[in-house]
Amino acid sequence: MRKGTSSALTLSLGFAAVVALSATVVLGLTLPKTFEQEEYSRLIAVHPGVAWAAYIAFGVTAVASALWLLPRTRSRTWDLVAGASAEIGVVFTALMLVTGSIWGRPTWGVYWVWDARLTLSALMLMLLVGYLALRRVPADPDVRAQRSAFVALLSVLVVPVNHYAVEWWRTLHQSRSLDMTPSDDLDGEFIAAMMLGLLAFTLVYAWLLVHRVRVARLEEEREDEALAVAIDERRREAEVVG
Amino acid sequence: MGYVAAGYGITIGTLAAYAAWLLVRGRRAGGR
Questions:
Q1: What is this model's ipTM?
Q2: Which domain covers residue A194, as residue numbers?
Q3: Model pTM?
């Protein structure tokens, strides 16, 4: 009997994610053409949602790391959650950069410029990849968890800086799409598509996180079993020789 | 339309591929 990583929770989460994502695609692709951007503004249903999920992923890695560092809440699970969320963060951050570049080409005329927002986003990806590389450096599990947690807590500072980069520096990237004031210049249906995208990609992130943590746990169990078998074999060899 | 289709396609395609890879990895690691 094969035991996978699916459960009633992931099935319902997966169903909700697929429904929300399908609605996002339909709503996004049927948005009207705009005067400034023609049909390219339809990317508003995808790009902000993907960026949001990347921020959440990085944030969850940092919170889980802090929970591991605090003696009262320390548990192996938090270390696994931190690692799992960072891996998903790499996927979403890469997608954020790719969809942003794709949107930039027809609206700005270039795929890439080294402005504050884009540079910090690239740095975010590098920090996440570096964090995952650090987790692969062989060490005692507790030592590895501790140094990874410190690095995650330092690296996560890039997220708020990146979020406010468009206000603090002059960037080609537009300022925040939604500033929650009556002067918001985004039409209702564009806001709806963007919010639906945020919900859909959050659900996708949650589904991926649960599965990734379960995969990590199963792989650890397999490694422990393999180690126990190897130790047992060495013991028997020693008995035969002795 | 090419840029919009590319944005949607790459995003959905990448996420679907990653999700499928996780499911396969989970089944492999869960096998007895």
A1: 0.94
A2: 8-176+186-212
A3: 0.91
